[in-house]
């Protein structure tokens, strides 16, 4: 069982390690949305000690906004595309999605978090706190992708759903 997981996880680990080998940058307040933001990760179903990629799951990214004077504004939220057969998701946020609805000015982003949002499975539908899937994984380090669009690509998770409510915050040994 662990071998099956490892084989499907290897391509993502290679992708992530190649992204991070070229350099990761930490964000500071106010600079987050100078270009498009991408948030990627993996979502699994944990049944016992077995992790299985969860196809069709959705993650949510919520960002706190502030106006030009630093006053808090309404949060902006985007949903990821549904995960593929390997549990991979990508959510994107552009500056046009952060504009104030009245003044049409782009607002400052103070902080963004990624959460588990939706499981397509009736038998594996409870979000877990593994890698802050419930409380929200803070977007901290990114890799700048400069082909075609300039995107700050953040990686979170992996996030995990389970068949029952759980308080487990760790990934099982070997994963």
TrEMBL record:
Keywords: Signal. It comes from the Eukaryota. Residues 1-30 form the signal peptide. This is Proline-rich protein 3-like.
């Amino acid at each position: 069982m662990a071998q099956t997981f490892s084989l499907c996880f290897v391509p993502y680990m290679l992708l992530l390690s190649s992204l991070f080998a070229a350099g990761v940058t930490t964000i500071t307040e106010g600079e987050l949305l100078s270009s498009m933001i991408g948030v990627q990760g993996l979502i699994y179903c944990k049944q016992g000690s077995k992790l299985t990629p969860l196809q069709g799951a959705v993650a949510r990214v919520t960002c706190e906004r502030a106006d030009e004077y630093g006053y808090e504004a309404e949060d902006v939220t985007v949903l990821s595309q549904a995960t593929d057969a390997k549990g991979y998701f990508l959510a994107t946020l552009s500056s046009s999605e952060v504009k104030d609805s009245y003044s049409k000015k782009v607002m400052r982003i103070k902080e963004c978090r990624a959460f588990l949002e939706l499981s397509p499975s009736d038998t594996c539908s409870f979000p877990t706190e593994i890698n802050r899937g419930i409380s929200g994984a803070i977007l901290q380090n990114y890799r700048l992708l400069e082909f075609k669009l300039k995107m700050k690509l953040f990686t979170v998770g992996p996030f995990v759903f389970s068949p029952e409510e759980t308080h487990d915050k760790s990934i099982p040994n070997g994963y």
